[in-house]
Amino acid sequence: MKYFWSLIITLTVSGLMYAQDPSKALLDRLSQKVLSHQNIQIAFDYVLDNKDAGVQQKTTGKLTLKGKNYRFEMMGAIQIFDGKKVYTIVDENEEVTVEPPQKSDASELSPQDLIQFYKQGYTYKWDIEQAVGNRKIQYIKLTPIATKSSLQSILLGIDSKNLEIYKVIQTGKNGTKTTLTVQSWKVNQTLPANALLFDKAYYTKKGYYISEL
Predict the structure, then answer these.
(1) Does the N-terminal or the C-terminal CB of the chain have fewer CB atoms within 10 Å?
(2) How far apart are CA 60 and CA 47, in angstroms?
(3) Bigger pLDDT: 114 or 98?
């Protein structure tokens, strides 16, 4: 799951500027618009499905982006990246993990590092167009180049008029499919000064165990 949401953040931040035509034209337009925003706030639905294993999990999440910094909320956890360190807060366990961005492999890359891996790691193909209400969603299929990748493919759905990411469908070689559908996309919102910062004093006062790796 960590790779999945890292990919979402990276797609939003980077705009996927190195795709092949005709994908490149749309993705360049997406990139230009995304990069023009001071910040982006996304609310989404998330579904994980593996029919062979009899597993289906549904949840919702929120993502706030400002430059490379972000705040991600999903499945009872909050993750904050302040430009230097990643803070993972799990209220149920009253625990905070502090660590530098990881670079060990594709599944652990941080959003700011994933972009270089991403540029070199996929081929692109223009896929279907889907009508969602009065919106036209154009899908672009991404296929990992590396044969050892655990991913089979990724479908990125883009609102071609508003230039917003609408849906990302990730299919694994193990039969697991994860689908993220954006429910709201807001830009240039007024954010609190500490929105993308970790308040250590606050969590220390609450008695949370803070583990620095």
Answers:
(1) C
(2) 9
(3) 98
Q: Which residue has the higher pLDDT, 23 or 137?
A: 137
Query: Comparing C-alpha atoms, which of 48, 46, 1, 59 is closest to residue 177?
Result: 48
**DSSP of 98-113, one letter per residue?**
EEPPP-SSTTT--HHH
Query: Per the structure block, which two tokens stand in for 43?
Result: 């609310």
Which tokens go with 117? 């891996």
- Enter the pTM of the model: 0.78
Which of the 8 DSSP states describes residue 56?
A: E
Task: List, in sequence order, every beta strand (DSSP E) within the chain.
Answer: 40-50, 55-66, 69-74, 77-81, 86-90, 95-99, 122-132, 135-144, 151-159, 164-172, 177-187, 209-212
Q: Taking a C-beta distance cutoff of 8 angstroms, is the pair 127, 147 a contact?
A: no
Residue owning tokens 């939003």 = 12
